[in-house]
Amino acid sequence: MTELKHTPLNAVHRALNARMVDFGGWDMPVNYGSQIDEHHAVRSDAGMFDVSHMCVVDFTGTRARAFFEYALANNVGKLQTPGRALYSCMLNERGGVIDDLIVYFFSDECFRVVVNAGTAEKDIAWFNRLNAERGFGVTITPRRDYAIVAVQGPNARAKVWQVLPSARGATEPLKPFNAARVSDAAFGDLTIARTGYTGEDGFEIIVPALKVAALWQALQAAGVRPCGLGARDTLRLEAGMNLYGQDMDEEVSPLDAGLAWTVDLTAPREFVGRAALEQNGARSDFVGLILQKEDGKAGGVLRAHQTVVTPHGEGEITSGTFSPSMQESIAFARVPKGVKPGELVQVQIRGKALPASVVKLPFVRNGKVLAA
């Protein structure tokens, strides 16, 4: 049996009596007592997540920009101001998603990427392959000497500034999807990005691994609630944010996963997977579902892999949960083209066909329910 990997915060989680689970080979907290309370803390105040299982990778070299122009479906040409960030899919030649990631631009010769935990080794091998095949000459450096803490919620930024007053001047002006590099006497050299995976405002903080426990404890003392993977999943699903391995993978095009907005087919550049995307186009629609209630009660919970029956043919739920914010069962579904918001479909749950309404994503954003 393979031993689970530990983030630098593992001992902290255990001291807080977190319920730990195997998450992609990492020993991670699913909750610290109440997943629902953690979810609501992020929607109403501030919560924090250990996301140090994700991998920071630095790219340096005179052709670093050219490398990402070729490697990513979104266009790093949009990144002109140091600190700007971009969300993108990285595709294989068939147009399937190898991973979704965020790339940070610091200079034409210096970029930073954060990749998913379960795909990190695969991603780095792919980066190295593209670099060698095309002769970009980029130096690729995985940075496991860093940890990452995501602080999310309407009060998240204020509480981060309480703990990191030295960072306020550099980070208060940040717009979403921008980052600043900050040197703090107590916590070392930080990268603080106004990004997240919850649909709420906040920061993702890349911090030296040796300093992350002190940062976590200082944030907790400032009133930021520790939150686990359970709340992270319900929050991201309410916010309409895809999960790699469930909502897309190497066999699924971003055009079929609600991620067409992350693909730039207008700029005249070659990138891996472009030819396949242009040849195949979008084959499916990606929609939100809300399970209908009868007599005020839902007949089940929407879950991944349940069949969705529409007038245009069958589809499938990719992610589903019970929404704490909405008190409804919600899901993402990949369905035949032509299914529109406002329509009713049938979901097969335990041998029954239950009605669900089709809605436009997201369900919830910045604490406000958008889908009904």
Question: What is the domain tally?
Answer: 2
* Helix residue percentage: 10-25%
Mean pLDDT: 97
Global shape: globular
> What separation lies between the terminal Cα atoms?
46 Å
Strand order of the largest sheet: 10-11-12-9-3-13
DSSP, total strands: 23
CATH superfamily of the largest domain: Probable tRNA modification gtpase trme, domain 1
In DSSP terms (H or I, runs of 4 or more residues), the helix count works out at: 9
Q: In angstroms, what is the radius of gyration?
A: 21 Å
Q: Which structural class fits the helix and strand makeup? A: alpha+beta
The CATH architecture designation of the largest domain is 2-Layer Sandwich
Plain-language structure description:
This protein is an alpha+beta fold. The chain has two domains: 1-242, 2-Layer Sandwich (Gyrase A, domain 2), CATH 3.30.1360.120; 283-369, Aminomethyltransferase beta-barrel domains (Elongation Factor Tu (Ef-tu), domain 3). The protein is 21% helix and 35% strand. It contains nine helices and 23 strands. It has helices spanning 10-15, 35-44, 64-71, 120-134, 156-163, 168-171, 212-221, 229-238, 274-280, and strands at 19-23, 26-31, 47-50, 55-60, 85-91, 97-107, 110-115, 139-142, 146-152, 179-184, 188-193, 202-208, 225-226, 284-291, 293-294, 297-298, 307-310, 313-323, 328-336, 344-349, 352-359, 364-365, 368-369. The strands form six sheets. It has a six-stranded mixed beta sheet with strand order 10-11-12-9-3-13. Strand 5 (85-91) and strand 6 (97-107) form a beta hairpin. Helix 2 crosses helix 8.
